[in-house]
């Protein structure tokens, strides 16, 4: 399995070799036995490799090169918006006045940071068409949960306690039903029609006086814009439910359409997708939530307010759902998103959407002759193909994804959404050049030809990576995180 020349650091160990130098001890040595209870003291020295500084440097550098990231290659992972993270964002986030703040500092000493947060909220209010925004939630899913908790409090405050159900289309992002469940609701699924859009008949059937909200991912995970939004809003609102907009992938509509204008009551955004915060590897993220005026009392507290020319946190919010995050959210990601919005400007943000949509449609049309296209419609920021044709030749979508690794690409999202057989979901984002898109399409076309002419090469891929095929279930359930002697 291990195909690399570079020996592992544990195998390089030479007794007595050291990779550090410490100054001479000038304080009394501590007797650990006095500080720690016996059970916590180890009896034997740890088996650490004994290597030079250069060896350890090469070890970590080699490990870092095994990672694939946006800075190292194309990353068309659908519904993830793996776009370029401009480095000016990093510079600004590292300004001393931002990076070295302490969250317990007095408000009067952090007015600049609060102004940035307030301005960011104002921009997001303008971008989404909502009335107020909170920056507290730490991720998209966290924003969903926050929004649903506010909807819950709203219904409860109106004595409307029978509303226990959240309606979620089968083309929604997977976090939507999960958040609804965590927020204490029961999820009701509504089907997609033959065009890949929410089936209005089915929606009418499931919406009723027990409906707390409809959560809509738009564009949905098929990359399609829900064309009947106003009708859906009417159906849900006239039944007394609220409308939740999953705006994680706003680069499909940014500066073109606003959830607030479509009738939505709550929307969350992913600053770590649309607004170029780096992501992957578990964070940090930021999932601000915008609400319409009747939900403002339920916003997480404290709420950042402007009082004259002073910025303050308002804790006096008796109907608030409470805090959803220690302190005030992931401030560093706010700085990055703010820098991005200000450097792009309104015209730049419009161009983002136009290019994201153009790129996806361009790739979809170039790939269409070689793969099945389940929904032959104009797509938004992403599109789905089906590997049905290749499956008949014995090549599964998983094999295609693995083969892409040999070409140096991160594979697209696969087997999601569930309503497309052998699904391949591709999101190019707006930051890639035509040359990069073409090179990826060429690789996909070559794989399609290999599936016909030489399926083994695809079935046995990857051939060039350090590790071949993992038992992915075991790797997730029982990860081996320590070096083990062979
Ligand atoms: C990524 C994504 C989410 C979840 O966001 P996290 O920050 O990963 O929790 C929700 N909805 C959509 C449409 C997404 O693309």
Short recap of the structure:
By secondary structure, the chain is an alpha/beta fold.
Please provide a written account of the structure.
It is a single chain. By secondary structure, this protein is α/β, with parallel strands linked by helices. The chain has a domain of 257 residues: 3-Layer(aba) Sandwich (Aspartate Aminotransferase, domain 2). It is built from 15 helices and twelve strands. It has a seven-stranded mixed sheet with strand order 1-7-6-5-4-2-3, sandwiched between helices. Helix 6 crosses helix 7 and helix 10 crosses helix 13. The longest helix has 37 residues. The protein is globular and about 75 Å long. The protein starts with 31 loop residues before the first helix and ends in a 9-residue tail after the last helix. The model has no long low-confidence stretch (mean pLDDT 94). The chain binds pyridoxal-5'-phosphate.
